[in-house]
Amino acid sequence: MRKASAQATPRLVFARNLRQVRRLRDLSQEALALQAGLSRTYVSEVERGARNISIDNMGLLAEALGMPLRDLLDADLLKRLAAS
């Protein structure tokens, strides 16, 4: 049996960062979804960590936010954003 990790999974890190960056940029889920060519429901599921997102769709969302995908996978992104 696999033990639960104390750290968030990459999917949950991405979900948390996506939501926070979207909110910081004052974008609705619908606006972000439209820019990325995805549905609002899909973006909602991704942000909740309920959707196992593909790397292609991660790239679309990062591009829609105008940032590198690697930043959305950075577990320390929120600390860096808060410090700036």
From TrEMBL:
Gene3D superfamilies: lambda repressor-like DNA-binding domains. InterPro entries: Cro/C1-type_HTH, Lambda_DNA-bd_dom_sf, TransReg_Diox_bact_type. Residues 18-72 form the HTH cro/C1-type domain. Keywords: DNA-binding, Transcription, Transcription regulation. The keyword Transcription regulation applies. This is Helix-turn-helix transcriptional regulator. The lineage of its organism: Bacteria, Pseudomonadati, Pseudomonadota, Gammaproteobacteria, Lysobacterales.
